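pipeline/complex-builder :: batch 7 item 3
reading input block
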Amino acid sequence: MKKFDYFKPTSLEEALTLFAQYGEKAKWIAGGTDVIVMIKQKTMTPDVLISLQGIPGLGEIKFNGTLSIGPMVTHRMIEKSELIKKDFSALADAVSWLGSIQIRNVATIGGNICTAAPSADTATPLLVLGTQVKIKSLKEERTVPIEAFFKGPGATVLKTGEMIKELMIPKPLPNTGSAYYKLQRRLALDLPILGVSVLLSLDKNKVTCSDMLCTTSPISSILHKMEEDQIICKEVRIALGVAAPTPMRAVKAEGLLRGKPLSDELLERVAETAVQEAQPRDSIRGEAWYRRDMIRVLVKRMAMKSIERVIQPEETVFPERLW
Amino acid sequence: MGKQTLSFTLNGEPVSVETESHLTLLQLLRDKLELIGTKEGCGMGECGACTVLLDGKTVNSCIFPAMEVDGKNVVTIEGLTDAQGNLHPLQKAFVEYGAVQCGFCTPGMVLAAKSLLDENPKPTEEEVRHGIAGNLCRCTGYIQIIQAIKAVSGQI
Ligand SMILES: Cc1cc2nc3c(=O)[nH]c(=O)nc-3n(C[C@H](O)[C@H](O)[C@H](O)COP(=O)(O)OP(=O)(O)OC[C@H]3O[C@@H](n4cnc5c(N)ncnc54)[C@H](O)[C@@H]3O)c2cc1C
Ligand code: FES
Ligand code: FES
């Protein structure tokens, strides 16, 4: 493996000053699960690694009105957070199938989005949750919405010497549910063929047909029944991973549903519109036509899962309904 | 920068060792400390053969920077036997249930199982499978491994 120097600063100032000193020759290292692999594969050749492990305050999950996730929070910490499971469910879905426990014990959320792989599992949940990214350099601090963070495969808005200091997620509206689906061939150590996140905020959490969610009825029958309740979608966000050069929001699809009553016919059009907005390609993990077909299927299924999470029917079908 | 001195707890004993700053924990363990129980399979974080416990949690030592173990507590497969050299109950069960064939995955698998049971002493079969999902075994087909883990958790 290529030789490099390794610094372990113990404060933010020290870290940023060190980086400013080495500039292009340096890289940040968090858990190193991307950095060390890339150095071994010779796709990254830093002379200096600057570790963020010893800097206090970067590895905490806090909530006071807004959810604050430090960049050094590991996927395993997120997986174990009851608060995130309950109110920011799409993110909990994403980390529970990321890599393996060994990877999740070490790999961080900051590292995941900074690597900016089109397949990054936490990217689409962070998109639907409306995340703001706080970025710090020696000279300035700025905040960018996550939509503006990704610039291409492996590329972000971060300039040399900048680091992510915090991810901020607003408290969802009442009656919000969110869900992420990782389409993969095996349940561990696989990257997604496609990742789909949906967030829905409804105007109510009681519906007459909630029992139907506990059955194996087809989605269309459940939605037909729900139309009688006139459930309004107050907010909707849809995000797709591995469907374009960067993780993306399907904003046209969202626009069709926002403020409208839920119906089978409308969700069908929403899913179809999301397909049209995506620009998937053929790759080793899956072909473009398959990704398109699965966007149509999974947008609808993740909408149903979000609805289920709002309505929280008492009983659930066993084994848990896949949607 | 070059050489650095690291001090940490290794299998219950304090150690101090000089390392180059670019080594992985696996290189430190095998090449500097001559603890060759920890195996290198893929070298890329995929197979779990190099699993060790860092402050009680499993990590893939092949992609973990040695520099980060300073001040930490590391347990390798060599650290599982007791003071008299008796095998750990998990190791005994692996032998008894035929969960070891070529043995290359075993050190990592046993440590993954230990960490699973430390956190969740009575895992369901599903939880056992999820708990060892980061460890590949090319020989056993996993069934015997799962049985050995269930036996130790008093479920067989
Ligand atoms: C076997 C294996 C399986 C994997 N499976 C998955 C998977 O299923 N899904 C998935 O999405 N990923 C997966 N990954 C990729 C990787 O584990 C994740 O992207 C992980 O979250 C990276 O985090 P890290 O802390 O290890 O980052 P590092 O490797 O330390 O850093 C990654 C990049 O981010 C930069 N960086 C880190 N922190 C900051 C910060 N605060 N500010 C600015 N820049 C920063 C680094 O300079 C580097 O460029 C896998 C990797 C391996 C080896
Ligand atoms: S050798 Fe480390 S995971 Fe395969
Ligand atoms: S016993 Fe041979 S790889 Fe598991």
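note: The beta strands of chain B are 3-10, 13-20, 51-54, 57-60, 73-75.
queue -> next item
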